[in-house]
């Protein structure tokens, strides 16, 4: 798993994978890897969200507008291993935005995100390899594996 690549890791899974601890730990981490569901919103892109479920049948939503306002001062890289997390919805009079853009707005300099739906089976190996390079000190663009499902945005 990705967690085995790094020395100091906080993993949120199952009942612990809720919004408050995710925000708390993400804002203090240099690398954040989100493996879960993302939801796009064609009508109002600022309501695109990362879904954090914990044990609840109703997920906590980390909306794009809230991500953009968060303070990720320690975070250098966010990996969004979720479907369509970089997909922008173009609509008249609505600024095109994505979950990846929201993290850029929150001053995270490096984002790895997906342009379309991805399968867990196909992305796991690619992302583990990617994180191995990052853990060795590579910057996100040079660490990016050759999978076509991913794009990288850096500021």
Q: Please, could you describe this protein's structure?
A:
The chain has 155 residues and is α/β, with parallel strands linked by helices. The chain contains five helices and seven strands, in the order H-E-E-E-E-H-E-H-E-H-H-E. The protein has helices at 19-27, 64-69, 99-105, 120-135, 140-143; strands at 31-35, 37-39, 49-52, 60-63, 77-81, 110-114, 150-154. The strands form two sheets. It has a four-stranded mixed β-sheet with strand order 1-5-6-7, with helices on one face. Strands 2-3-4 form a three-stranded antiparallel β-sheet. Helix 3 links the parallel strand 5 and strand 6 (110-114). The radius of gyration is 15 Å and the shape is globular. It starts with 18 loop residues before the first helix and ends with a strand. Residues 145-149 have low confidence and may be disordered.
Helix content: 25-40%
- Rg from alpha-carbon coordinates: 15 Å
Count of runs of 4 or more consecutive helical residues:
5
* Low-pLDDT stretches: 145-149
| Largest sheet, spatial ordering of strands | 1-5-6-7
SSE pattern: HEEEEHEHEHHE
Overall number of strands: 7
**Amino-to-carboxy terminus distance:** 28 Å
Instruction: State the shape.
Output: globular
- Name the quaternary structure: single chain
* Structure class: alpha/beta
Query: Hey, roughly how much beta strand do the residues contain?
Result: 15-25%
Q: Characterize the main sheet.
A: 4 strands, mixed
Q: Averaging pLDDT over every residue, what do you get?
A: 83
Labels describing this entry:
3-stranded antiparallel β-sheet; 155 residues; 4-stranded mixed β-sheet; 5 helices; alpha/beta
